[in-house]
Amino acid sequence: MESRNTQLAVGFFVIIGVLALLFLGLRAANTNFSSNGETYKLYAKFDNIGGLKERSPVKVGGVVVGRVSKITLDGDYYEPLVEMTISKDYDEFSDTSSVSILTSGLLGEQYIGLSPGFIDDTVEMLDDGDYIHDTKSALVLEDLIGQFLFSQGND
Amino acid sequence: MTSAQMDDLIVIENLDFAHSYGAHQVYKGLSLRIPRGKITAIMGPSGIGKTTLLRLIGGQLKPQRGTIEFAGYNIPELSRSHLYEQRKRMSMLFQSGALFTDMSVYDNIAFPLREHSKLSEEIIETIVLMKLEAVGLRGARHLMPAELSGGMARRAALARAIALDPELIMYDEPFAGQDPISMGVIVKLIKSLNNSLGLTSVVVTHDVAEVLTIADKVVIIADKKVVAEGSPEELKNSDDPLIHQFLSGEADGPVPFHYRAPSLAEEILGAQQGESHAG
Amino acid sequence: MLDRIAGLGKAVLDSIAGAGQAMVMLLRALIGKPQLRKSWPLLMQQMYSVGVLSLIIIVVSGLFIGMVLGLQGYTILVDFGAEQSLGPMVALSLLRELGPVVTALLFAGRAGSALTAEIGLMKATEQLSSLEMMAVDPLRRVISPRFWAGFYSMPLLALIFSAVGIYGGYLVGVRWLGVDDGAFWSVMQANVEWGQDILNGIIKSLVFAFVVTWIALHKGYHCVPTSVGISRATTSTVVTASLAVLGLDFVLTALMFG
Ligand SMILES: Nc1ncnc2c1ncn2[C@@H]1O[C@H](COP(=O)(O)OP(=O)(O)OP(=O)(O)O)[C@@H](O)[C@H]1O
Ligand SMILES: [Mg+2]
């Protein structure tokens, strides 16, 4: 009898542990994509990626649609090339879409903001492996200050 | 000679043993035979190494030299698994009882049965109750070891030691802490186990009078070896002063009562002379 | 001077011998065919005393540490206008560090010391010897179920600790200090990764579980079987296990996140 109660208690203990794992997995971590679900890849070249990192989110209007999966230097001039893994749920971006590197908050993390372009008969849709050509680089504080001083001096 | 060997369950030859790196030599050249199916009493002054001897036979300690043959197997040289195999044939009543404190008396006695037999719970229950009845503790089966008195714990441990009816039972002071009635019961129990099942019993004890009534062979250990052995009659009739001293319990004689130490006068009066030994 | 050097040499030799003993003990306890029918109830019993009985202290500490993280994190982050990041801060500290480490430290104090004392007492009262004489290997019977119970319990406890801690952070951050509910969870989700954070945390706590339980069992099994010996062994379990956890945590963190 006593051993039965022990087994019950241990059973509950294990269940609570598994529930904790589920809570952590579903509530605290992002599970909606990347590990599961279909994805496709898009590429974009920037002059400067600032503090962007692998795993930084790709957002459309604040909604996460994908993640930066790889950052490399590409071509003869070593331009930063960013590979983005985007969920298949969002595969209707047009050729004219643009990406920019943005910062959330003053000290927040950097992410890629994707603005969908217009759609009509003349534009094509982006497919797996396509490049987004319209890119805006990260703002670098030192450059900004430099520009500001330069324009002051011109006046 | 050969026929004697056939009849000996345990043959110890030329045993040397010292605890922890030879700090204290317990045995030097000890030889001893324990006849099969008989009760052998081992006596000797306290601290001479009787418990140590039982542990050597059980393979818990390794001698530095010599052989300990149990039913033809040299215990110190057995591999671990073979040693465990042989231990199934023996059982030991520890001086402290050594009941499992997290189990009731009943479960303690059922433990070896559950561990080593495939008997059903009902049969185990019957056996356990029989063994408990034999030591007068059937009513105490639901108690935990902490709730037993010292003597009761010893008897419960005795019941556990005989649970499996092994070939060899080693009793380390089974009578200690028992009142005259339970002492008599235990004496009879050891005798009857021996008679009815033909078990070999080794009884370490200081209760000379009790053990002489049941023992077939008496061994007296002193001075790192066996100093006398024989049937109770032989020893009683012997006029060896050492045997006489031991059997009649005199403090002065060939067997020293004190643990090795300088004399009291020397130690108290001449304290500066040298370091005193630990008592 | 020479005495000192000799003393040092002896200490080193002793600790090597101790490590060797511990290794042999563990190998003997774990190697060999397991007998499920017999070991299952033993494992349950030990899961109960090692795991279930540690639950309360884990839940209470987890809750309070989470609440303190929420409070401290908020007061720091709010100065930078970044209180939205409270969620990931609480979650990541718990999942990566505090969950596994604090659980292991509490486990060493609560369950580890109990294991050492229990086994030490079994040794002192000759229960281990008496098992041996009954041809029951105490390593299999006593050590092995306790080892597995510790190994399985601690990661579960660490997960519970982290979950409760996040809830504590939520209580303070969102319910009390008014961080936006949606932001708290969504920013957390955006920053917490399954593999990088949760899985690494679990791996950490498996390593800690192994080490802490092993140390506790070794100290008990090889203690000097007297009351002083047992009390020394118990203290030594808590100290050694805690230091081992902190040291290993640094190494693991460097390997995983460095
Ligand atoms: N673990 C140990 N380490 C070192 N010495 C020990 C150890 N155990 C016992 N001894 C020593 O070995 C000797 C024999 O001890 P043992 O327990 O066998 O005596 P004994 O004959 O059973 O005594 P008693 O009749 O009092 O039970 C003693 O002198 C004791 O000091
Ligand atoms: Mg003794």
UniProtKB/TrEMBL annotation, chain C:
Gene Ontology cellular component list: ATP-binding cassette (ABC) transporter complex
Primary subcellular site in the record, as a coarse category: membrane
Pfam families attached to this UniProt entry: MlaE
Nucleus among keywords: no
InterPro entries: ABC_MlaE_roteobac, MlaE_Permease, Permease_MalE
Record's bilayer topology term: Multi-pass membrane protein
Transmembrane domains' residue ranges: 12-31, 52-78, 156-178, 198-217, 238-257
Gene Ontology molecular functions: phospholipid transporter activity
Swiss-Prot/TrEMBL keywords: Cell inner membrane, Cell membrane, Membrane, Transmembrane, Transmembrane helix, Transport
Keyword Disulfide bond among record annotations: no
Subcellular location: Cell inner membrane
Role summary: Part of the ABC transporter complex MlaFEDB, which is involved in a phospholipid transport pathway that maintains lipid asymmetry in the outer membrane by retrograde trafficking of phospholipids from the outer membrane to the inner membrane. Probably responsible for the translocation of the substrate across the membrane.
Entry similarity comment: Belongs to the MlaE permease family.
This protein's name: Intermembrane phospholipid transport system permease protein MlaE
Source organism of this protein record: Pseudidiomarina homiensis
